[in-house]
Amino acid sequence: MTSQEIYDLIQTTELDGSDWHIFRDVENVFLIKRDTPEGDYVYMSSQIWKNGSHDVMIEAAVGDILIAGLGLGYDALAIKDKPEVTSIDVVEIQQDVITLNAHLADFPDINIIHSSIMSYFDTNEKLYDVIWMDIFPGDISYFPEEKDILTTAANNHLKEGGKLLFWRQFAKLSL
Ligand SMILES: C[S@@+](CC[C@H](N)C(=O)[O-])C[C@H]1O[C@@H](n2cnc3c(N)ncnc32)[C@H](O)[C@@H]1O
């Protein structure tokens, strides 16, 4: 069975001379396939997140949520229909990642912000009930050396009793 038979194609974007196709299956598993003149390959898939490393955040999501790292939009889509969730801000450093996720415009409750997470913390005062840090491995310099700085900045944006969650705390994979 090919990926096209088990996934629905939801968006194709031309970027850097390639066609990038985003597929989604019924269980909200995403897959990005890149077609290049030399051939095609799977660029990114959320299949491995079925290991449970994102479930902690999905279960904890209540109130105003900040997600650092858009990636495939998996987390934002997973919580958007939770009645306890009141707002979802997603901060993403790379414009290309935002472009590849243009289909998320269908969900206006998901507010995507193009910024590095540190700049966002430095320039915004909004407080959150849950902050989900999922920027690894895009900016590996935060780990572990700058994790303290990031943790302090994030804690300053939590409401009283709010939760700060880091993806690596819960990952079962060792990278
Ligand atoms: C593992 S993916 C996030 C997966 C995402 N939570 C999801 O549900 O699909 C990591 C993302 O963090 C972004 N990123 C890396 N460094 C960042 C930073 N300093 N600020 C904001 N986003 C960053 C990367 O471009 C990448 O899109």
User: Helical stretch count?
Assistant: 7
CATH topology of the largest domain: Rossmann fold
CATH class category name of the largest domain: Alpha Beta
Count the E strands. 9
Integer-rounded radius of gyration = 16 Å
- In the CATH hierarchy, the architecture of the largest domain is 3-Layer(aba) Sandwich
Named once each, the bound ligands are: S-adenosylmethionine
* Overall pLDDT: 83
Total count of domains: 2
- Separation of termini? 30 Å
Structural class: alpha/beta
> Order of strands across the biggest sheet?
7-6-5-8-9
SSE run? HEEEEHEHEHEHEHEH
Low-confidence stretches: 137-142, 171-175
Biggest beta sheet attributes:
5 strands, parallel
- Portion of residues in helices? 10-25%
Range of strand content: 35-45%
CATH superfamily heading of the largest domain: Vaccinia Virus protein VP39
Describe this structure in words.
The protein is of the alpha/beta class. It has two domains: 3-47, no CATH class; 52-170, Rossmann fold (3-Layer(aba) Sandwich). 24% of the residues lie in helices and 36% in strands. It has seven helices and nine strands, in the order αββββαβαβαβαβαβα. It has helices spanning 3-6, 55-60, 74-79, 95-100, 117-123, 147-155, 167-170, and strands at residues 8-15, 18-24, 30-36, 39-45, 63-68, 85-92, 110-114, 128-133, 158-166. The strands form two sheets. The protein has a five-stranded parallel β-sheet with strand order 7-6-5-8-9. The protein has a four-stranded antiparallel β-sheet with strand order 1-2-3-4. Helix 4 (95-100) links the parallel strand 6 (85-92) and strand 7 (110-114). The longest helix is centred in the C-terminal third of the chain and has 9 residues, at 147-155. The relative contact order is 0.15. It binds S-adenosylmethionine. Residues 67-75, 91-94, 97, 116-117, 134-135, 138-139 line the site of S-adenosylmethionine. S-adenosylmethionine (SAM) binds next to strand 5, helix 3 and strand 6.
